Amino acid sequence: MKYLNNEFKEFINFKLGTVNIPSSIDEIFGHNFDQHYTVYYNRHSDSILNHLCDKYGSDKGEIAKTGHPYPWPSHSYADFIERHFGHCRAFVQNVFECGLGTNNPTLASNMTATGQPGASLRVWREYFPSAQIYGADIDKDILFNEERISTFYCDQTSPKSILELWDSIGGIEFDIIIDDGLHTFEAGLCLFEHSFHKLKKYGIYIIEDVTIESLISFKQYFISKKYDYDFVNLYRNNFRLGDNNLVVVRKC
């Protein structure tokens, strides 16, 4: 097996019974899917969405290399989302995101004490000028309401809590649903199974911060189901793949 640079490949110990087999993500997925494609692109300094991430303190993307309220390298989700919605952003009507970015260090998947709760909701409000933005979080202390933004309590590990969330929001269907919450396979699956029905026809459901281990679990879940889905690995120079992955599900 040839090992390429970490810039191009991420290797994990894929546990099979009691044997640890070093495998690349390409090899693991290649045995289960007939087709895949690779996209190379240049980062543009005039990216509206990345500038908005810097403006509000979201870790979904960046232009600036310093001055962020989070201590880790930013993700490159903004690049992906801008390429899919930049041409139609004026027509997006409703956006929902689970995970407001709590800055309570005692809660799982927090943005550290310097995080900016609600950052990505404000990014969506400015990027999608006609959209109503909805958010939810388990941290009740960071819930807020502003012009075109409404937020609600939700424990995404609880089907009951998720259904109560949708009852509170009402009969709205969403162009985009984003899971940026707890970042575990179990929590992501629970939210997906109880929220996908809220997506409009042709809408897109995005699960962010998916680790390689969770990608394998989602692959095992989706492989036998009739969803239109992609597993997206977003590579960044000089960083291992880690959790910079998306599961993207389209409603046909």
The total strand number stands at: 10
Overall radius of gyration: 18 Å
- Number of discrete domains: 1
Overall morphology: globular
Counted by DSSP, the helix tally is 7
Strand order of the largest sheet: 5-6-4-3-7-8-10-9
Q: What's the order of the H and E elements?
A: EEHHHEHEEEHEHEHEE
Low-confidence stretches: 1-11, 16-21
CATH structural class: Alpha Beta
How far the N terminus sits from the C terminus, by CA atoms, comes to 39 Å
Mean of pLDDT: 90
CATH superfamily: Vaccinia Virus protein VP39
| Portion of residues within helices | 25-40%
Structural class, from helix and strand content?
alpha/beta
The CATH architecture: 3-Layer(aba) Sandwich
What characteristics describe this protein?
two-stranded antiparallel sheet, 7 helices, 252 residues, Rossmann fold, alpha/beta, 10 strands, eight-stranded mixed beta sheet
